[in-house]
Specification:
four-stranded mixed β-sheet, single chain, about 15% strand, alpha+beta, about 180 residues, about 30% helix
Length: about 180
């Protein structure tokens, strides 16, 4: 835990983080410098799972001009991302024909949360549905999204209930 905190505190920006891809290989997010990123925690057995179709459509539309969608399956919400990363990838490929990068399963909240998500939540806290008095920046459910600019700034956080058309409109203004 101490190592996670030190890494998170010492990270200057998103490009300082490393994640594991679906094959378990370490990937530096610096590989995505100059790209617009949409970072999403996903699940395959969730009511929001059909968003994969809209995410893939956005990816196909904007990837040639610099959009990357980074998919991080997470099983923390209702155990809705069961199975191995290979099983999850197979499901997404067969059912939604996804082509955007899919990374290893992670946790986005709690003592085992990935440092990337600690940093993302510090950049843009929760302000979505039922925000009222909720100052806790934790991810509330599957398919929370973070939009990151080409220079690594977190521009916006989207909750799962935000309309995909609104997210795409924000992405379109960047290009």
């Amino acid at each position: 835990m101490a190592m996670v905190c030190v890494l998170t505190l010492s990270a200057q920006g998103i490009y300082d983080f490393k994640v594991k891809d679906s094959a378990g290989q370490e990937v530096s997010l610096s590989d995505y410098k100059g790209k617009v990123l949409l970072i999403v925690n996903t699940a395959t057995r969730c009511g929001f799972t059909p968003q994969y179709k809209e995410l893939e459509a956005m990816y196909e539309k904007y990837r040639d001009v610099g959009l990357e969608i980074l998919d991080f399956p997470c099983n923390q919400f209702g155990q809705q991302a069961p199975g191995t990363i290979q099983e999850i990838h197979q499901f997404c490929s067969v059912n939604f024909n996804i082509r955007f990068p899919q990374f290893d399963k992670i946790e986005v909240n709690g003592t085992n949360e990935h440092p990337l998500y600690t940093w993302l939540k510090a950049q843009k806290g929760f302000s979505g549905f039922d925000a009222g008095n909720d100052k806790n920046p934790d991810i509330k459910w599957n398919f929370t999204k973070f939009l990151v600019s080409r220079d690594g700034r977190v521009l916006k956080r989207y909750e799962p209930t935000d309309k995909m058309a609104d997210i795409e409109a924000d992405i379109a203004t960047i290009f």
